[in-house]
Amino acid sequence: MARTKNKTIITCAVTGAIHTPTMSDALPYTYDDIAQQAIDAAEAGASILHLHARNNETGAPSVDPADFAPFLPRIKQASDAVINISTGGSLTLAIQDRIRPAATFSAEMCSMNMGSMNFSFHPLAKRYDSWKFDWEIDYVSNSDGNIFLTTYK
Q1: Spatial separation of the C-alpha atoms in residues 119 and 147, rounded to whole Å
Q2: 1 CB neighbour count, 10 Å cutoff
Q3: Residues 70, 56 contacting (CB under 8 angstroms)
Q4: How many other CB atoms are found less than 10 A from the CB of residue 2?
Q5: Helix (H, G, I), strand (E, B), or coil: what is residue 42?
Q6: Where are the beta strands (DSSP E) in the chain?
Q7: To the nearest 10°, the Cα dihedral for 29, 24, 43, 104?
Q8: Distance between the two ends of the chain, CA-based, in angstroms?
């Protein structure tokens, strides 16, 4: 009788789209930091890297392919981990916008929400007296109306 080995797949979401730079000094948002932390995660054992992009200057979540282009090739060159480009990117954008990076870079793997869900983290806004970037307070405070919408279309 053949013995089967248990296998473990580790996925690392390096930056995500929810946390803001004020929430954690460890949050990578520059292209260099995203690349380095993704490479470090792969070296530590992650076999899938779930990647979001950020605006290099402000740390705001971005689905602009131009914000993925500086770090994706570096990660691919330095790692054999599967690149999973998120289609979640922003809670306020249509799916057509959110899938653009994955389509642009022919992602090896993509995440996808299988159903609609409310996605609010507005109570976190009360935890901070000051913010590193102007966009953060509205992004967090106004999340009480966010829905990832999945329709039959």
Answers
A1: 6
A2: 3
A3: yes
A4: 3
A5: helix
A6: 11-13, 48-51, 53-54, 61-62, 82-85, 109-110, 117-118, 147-148
A7: -30
A8: 48
Pull the structure tokens for residue 41: 């995660």
Beta bridge partners of 118: 147
**What stretches of the chain show up as alpha helix (H) in DSSP?**
31-43, 65-68, 72-78, 95-98, 100-104, 135-141
Tokens of 82: 């599967």
Q: Per-residue pLDDT tens for 105-120? A: 988 998 877 777 787 8
Q: What are phi and psi of 12, to 5 degrees?
A: -120, 120
pTM above 0.85, yes or no: yes
pLDDT in tens, 131-151: 999 999 999 999 888 877 777
Phi, psi of 16 (to 5 degrees): 70, -175
